[in-house]
Write a structure and sequence with these properties.
- This protein is an alpha+beta fold and 286 residues long.
- The protein is 41% helix and 12% strand.
- It has a five-stranded antiparallel sheet with strand order 2-1-5-4-3.
- Strand 1 and strand 2 (132-135) form a beta hairpin.
- Helix 4 crosses helix 5, helix 9 (175-191) packs across helix 11 (211-219) and helix 10 (197-209) crosses helix 11.
- It is elongated.
Length: 286
Amino acid sequence: MIPMTIARSDLADFLRRSRARIGPEDAGLPAGPRRRTPGLRREEVAQLAGMSADYYIRLEQARGPQPSTQMLAALARALRLSDDELDHLYLLAGHRPPAARNRGDEVAPALLHLLDQLDATPAQVLNDLGDVLAQNAMAQALLGGVCTVSEHGRNVAWRWFGDTRPRAAYPAEEHDYYSRLHVADLRAAAAHRPNDAAVTHLVARLRAASDEFAELWDRHEVAVRRHSRMRVLHGVLGPVDLDSQVLLTPEGNQRLILLTPPPGSDLTERLAALRRPAGTDTMAFT
């Protein structure tokens, strides 16, 4: 991994301009006598961040040491930085930004609107742990509807390892590939959520339910799922080849998955004719 370097001049400029945008009343400090310049004084930022004034002044003069992540977090609180500004502060100081903020299970209205517009393309929204949060009508017809299932029932890895019936919708010779794909992707997500209760609970349940999962988890293979080719053995359409394209949301913990026909395929016409019979529980699951 290439080490990151501190951009001292840019860091100093960003701190100065961020300080100028915060008034004492915004930080809960008395306004005091008339100020010659807008914003907080350097000493006030240092006080709010719990560091010495000399240390902070040297940062603004582009001659201080590289601040630790703890110092950066304190400065971000003192300067009322947004999440994007916090990430920028970390990068300027030569550190990787904190893990992506978790949006939870709430899907943005704009993303839900997009799903509805994709009436000819199966599409789903999953979180980083593999929980299906939303599907459009075509995805439900092709893969089955699982968004309302409680606990881990809507989780990709849990359905694959905890209930092996969905595997019948995939060629047997590809089962090992999908098993490794699910585990490696979950491993990558877990690394971005250290000490997260949801991750710990899910992994513990999977290990208890599946020796195969436990063995694969212990291999520590890591690979974020971005694009893959998949074959679904659909009950009406027969074998269906699909390109699975994963698009990450800005928050990073939700993914829009588009399932499109490979170039030259006649699947578009076949999908257009697909109508899910009432009461049918399609087994396929991404």
